[in-house]
Amino acid sequence: MLKSIETIRGDSQGLAYQFPVLRFDGTDPAAPSAYLQAALHADELPGTAAIDALMPKLRAAEAEGRIRGRITVVPVANPIGAAQYLYGDHQGRYHTGTRVNFNRDFPLLPTPDTAGLPDDAALLPADARLKARLVALSMGHDIVLDLHCDDEGLDYLYIHAALWPQMADLATDLGARAVLLWEGSSDAAFEEAALHPYLQMSPDADGLDRRVVTTVEFRGRADVDPRLAATAGEGLYRFLVHRGVVADAAVAAAAPWDGVAVPLENVEMLRAPVAGPVLYHVAPGDQVAAGDRLATILHAPGEEGGRTDLFAPQDGLILTRRTVRTIRPGEDLLKLLGARASADARPGALED
Questions:
Q1: Is the backbone of residue 46 left (phi > 0), alpha (psi -120 to 50) or beta?
Q2: Which residues form the Succinylglutamate desuccinylase/Aspartoacylase catalytic domain (predicted)?
């Protein structure tokens, strides 16, 4: 394994950010290559824990000559967000200098050629230069896995419709309960940037049949413990074996996936109409019917008529819910996966 350190110049004198990149050389140039990164939202750590559990398996495979395709691993992809604290609270989702989501506004290249990407000397904010660096590190790999998590939720994946259902083996290996299929734009999230050049090519040239690009949601923010990390790390390893990146005869073939796959427009984003403490009547994994009560907001606690109930707009699966229990008007409360398009469906990413 080769370790290198990437450096991103800060936006003020004397400030710089660094993050490690771990690389394994493959023995077979024709084998698929893989790029894995975690903690792009720097306060989402289940992916980092999963990579920590995966690495001993990769080092053992390297020692035994079983790494077939090259592998690049970035366990902590966002040193800028990792350093952001406000009054003791970690602020890892948005860059506090620009208020831009760390997983939005990535450069969308017309081809896989990264020569035109801005380097660290470019007159751009540090977060924009970090995004360009991550695209450069990932481009050219057949498999690109961006490891995230939700607030509270099930394991699920975002997958471009052009890559489904050939990526069902990943859903099986990672134990995903659901897949959200997207088309068009995801507001230039990292996943879109990693796939965009290949979608511009002809079907005969792009090799979409072997390409795997996804945002992996490993449950919720608090789901960081040895057991869950080991399970996620084993799932990542199984997938690398099944796709031929790593050789391991002891890994059984993937079983058929039995989860739920829905277009992004079928996701009901339950939004708060009023402010106040929220009481949930459902949890991730619950199946609900149209009209079931999902949450109650105490907009005037203790007063007659001071409770606002929110109900399921259609049958479906509760995928996620918010960790916080104080809600403002317009904020998202949960995701419900339905069988038909949501009346409130909007283009782009589900959340800011």
A1: alpha
A2: 31-195
CATH topology of domain 2-258: Aminopeptidase (3.40.630)
| In the chain, domain spans | 2-258, 265-338
SS3 311: strand
Q: What kind and span of H or E run contains 203?
A: helix 203-206
- pTM exceeds 0.90, yes or no: yes
**Alpha-carbon gap, residue 176 to 280, rounded angstroms:** 23
The pLDDT tens digits for 207-229 are 688 899 999 999 999 999 999 99
CA dihedral for 157, 163, 169, 173, sign (positive or negative): negative
Alpha-carbon gap, residue 97 to 127, rounded angstroms: 9
Instruction: Collect all residues with Cβ–Cβ distance below 8 Å to 47 and sequence separation of at least 6.
Output: 37, 38, 39, 147, 148, 149, 216, 218, 232
pLDDT tens by residue, 81-98: 999 999 999 999 999 999
Q: How far is CA 250 from the centre of its chain?
A: 29
Structure tokens at 106: 């990535």
Dump the DSSP string for 121-164. Answer: TSSS-HHHHHHHHHHHHHTT-SEEEEEEEESEE--EEEEEGGGT
Q: What CATH code would you report for 265-338? A: 2.40.50.100
Write out 286-305 in H/E/C secondary structure. CEECCCCEEEEEECCCCCCC
Strand (E) or helix (H) holding 308: strand 307-311
